[in-house]
Amino acid sequence: MLGWCGFILLQGWKAATCTSPSYGSGGYPGDTEMLTTFSWDDRNVRRVFIRKVYAILMVQLLVTVNIVAFFTFCDPVKDYIQTHPAWYWASYAVFFVTYMILACCSGPRRYFPWNLILLSIFTLSMSYLTGMLSSYYDTKSVLLCLGITALVCLSVTIFSFQTKFDFTSCQGVLFVMLMVLFFGGIIMAVILPFQYVPWLHAVYAVLGAILFTMFLAFDTQMLMGNRRYALSPEEYIFGALNIYVDIIYIFSFFLQFFGSSQE
Question: Three-class SS of residue 94?
Answer without folding.
Answer: helix
